[in-house]
Amino acid sequence: MSPGAVGQRLVACLLNISEARSKGIVEKVAQAAIYNSSGGQREGTTVLNIFSDYDYNRSVITIVASVDRIREAVLSACQQACQHIDMRGHAGDHPCMGAVDLVPIYPLGEEVGLEECGNEAKALAATLTERVPGTSVFHFGFADSPQQRGLAHRRKELGWFKKHLDLETVRPDVGEKLQRRYGLTGVGASPYVMNCNVTIDTRDVGVGRLVAAGLRESAPGGLPGVQVLALPHEGAVEMACNVESVRGAPPEPGWPSFTIGGEQYCHVPASLVTARVAQLAGEHGVGTTGTALVGFTPLECRGLAQRALALGIGEFWREQRRVRM
């Protein structure tokens, strides 16, 4: 199959699960997306990357397929996660509400629109709650009709940012009353969201919160599309940033851009996020020690997916260093 043939109608799901301390479980979830129940490889489906963080006890699995095939791949991965992850015994430094915490679907080019991704996300959510009785879902973005509330907005409404969540007060959009074993899963669709984490050289989370306050989109002089949490991480503080793609032409040279449905989108480059964190942390006498990109930029994700699918590589996360050299 040629790269041109597999490049059509691609979408990505950056599946967030509440497990990172068992490599075996994480890989079982990833493999469930690639292989069917008979062990055969799903056509036109690949897992590009697995990013696991021990302290957070959270993994992000990048699944790519055509919009017509993504649902079954992601559902199979979610079923595997729900089988092996029990939120009643979960511990980790990253906020979470569910064994499968987040299921975002992103279009990877002109061929698929945001409304189609939203419809696919809603269908996925309904099927998940049917296949795994006891699971519950909230919608966000283009799956949240007609409000189209963003992920950060919905998480705040539902108490995702709280240290201790009272599940009795949460009302899911799909599914019955929450079961503590599975928790609550966010399912939605939006333009691509990149995850960029910058570590600052302090144990003082209070300093991290001051940096976050100046960095996020809502702050005067903040970066467009950036949502951020300051979290303790490996003896320091990590600025865990969601970098959302925003509608419009790049405001400055060097901002990556792409189009969806004839509309242009762009996102803050990771280098600018790093530089702004360094600037804000420096105002408090703190330096930075490194930046980690969780997965890829939107353009990298599309390009690598086309290559992986053209080569027929399902478990691309095992091959990416060799293939990308």
TrEMBL record:
Q: Which Pfam family, any one, appears in the UniProt record?
A: FTCD_N
Q: Which InterPro entries match?
A: Formiminotransferase_C_sf, Formiminotransferase_N, Formiminotransferase_N_sf, FormiminoTrfase_cat_dom_sf, FTCD
Question: What's the domain of life for this entry?
Answer: Eukaryota
Residues covered by the Formiminotransferase N-terminal subdomain domain: 9-191
Concerning SUPFAM superfamilies, the annotation shows:
Formiminotransferase domain of formiminotransferase-cyclodeaminase
**Under the GO molecular function aspect, what terms does this record hold?**
folic acid binding; transferase activity
Matching entries from PANTHER family are given as:
FORMIMINOTRANSFERASE N-TERMINAL SUBDOMAIN-CONTAINING PROTEIN, FORMIMINOTRANSFERASE-CYCLODEAMINASE
Return the protein name: Formiminotransferase N-terminal subdomain domain-containing protein
